[in-house]
Amino acid sequence: MAGGRPRSFDSETALDRALELFWRQGYEGTGISDLTKAMGINNAPSLYNAFGNKEQLFRRALDRYADGPARYIREAFAEPTARATVEALLHGAADATTHPAHPRGCITVTGALACAPGAEAARDELTGRRAAGEVALRERLRQARSSGELPAGSDPEGLARYFSTIYQGIAVQAAGGATREQLHQIVDTAMAAWPQPTAS
Questions:
Q1: What are the sequence ranges of the domains in the chain?
Q2: Averaged over 74-82, what is the pLDDT?
Q3: Vertex 155, ends 150 and 160: CA angle to 5°?
Q4: Domain 11-64 shares a fold with domain 69-193
Q5: Predicted confidence band at 110 (pLDDT cuts at 50, 70, 90)?
Q6: Cα three-residue angle 109-193-190, rounded to 5 degrees
Q7: Which CATH architecture has domain 11-64?
Q8: What fold, for 69-193?
Q9: Which of 100-109, 123-132, 180-189 has the largest mean confidence?
Q10: Which residue intervals of 68-155 are DSSP H helices?
């Protein structure tokens, strides 16, 4: 006979609901009572037993986001060229942040833009994840310069900062109501900044 009392909720479904709530309302705008109601959990102690505190649940929701709606990021870094990586990142963001099945925008950009004292940990978590993304992009662009895909005089650090800014701006614009078509146009305009080969 199996030991222990089975949980009365599906943890994967509950985590998806927590992700959507954090995504829609932000970290600070989401209370424990909101979470227990949306996740189908009876009370706060049950939530803590299953997922830890609110901050820990938020981190798990962010991981869920990375493996689900934002998996295009990982796929973009598998592209054969740096330019294809950047295009896949930006066009992927335009699609993901306007997907009708999810809240608009990107949780890692808009999830904790403004935090009162006590919510700094969530803000720092999001800041760290965005910074890690920029570092990964910078390294990809450095490789492109070393391989000759980018001109020798190009600036991987500046390019990574520029395209990361465009990426985050797409999320903000999407949350503000920009259409998917408008966002793809922004990407096409941004890609015009890609360094051209030096004339021999």
A1: 11-64, 69-193
A2: 97
A3: 95
A4: no
A5: confident
A6: 40
A7: Orthogonal Bundle (1.10)
A8: Tetracycline Repressor; domain 2 (1.10.357)
A9: 180-189
A10: 71-76, 82-96, 107-110, 120-147
Report the chain's mean pLDDT, rounded to a whole number.
90
Question: Among candidates 106, 13, 19, 99, which has minimal Cα distance to 60?
Answer: 19
Structure tokens at 142: 């450095």
Q: Scanning the structure block, which residue is given the tokens 């099945």?
A: 101
Q: How many helices (H) and strands (E) does the chain have?
A: 10, 0
Instruction: Write the DSSP string, the chain.
Output: ---SPPPSS-HHHHHHHHHHHHHHH-STT--HHHHHHHHT-SSHHHHHHHH-SHHHHHHHHHHHHHHTTTHHHHHHTTSSSHHHHHHHHHHHHHHHTT-TTS-SS-HHHHTTSS--TT-HHHHHHHHHHHHHHHHHHHHHHHHHHHHTSS-TT--HHHHHHHHHHHHHHHHHHHHTT--HHHHHHHHHHHGGGSPPPPP-
Beta strands in the chain (DSSP E): none
Which tokens is 179 given? 């259409």
Position 5, amino acid: R
Give the residue from 43, 37, 97 showing the smallest Cα distance to 65: 97
Percent of the chain whose predicted confidence (pLDDT) is above 90: 78
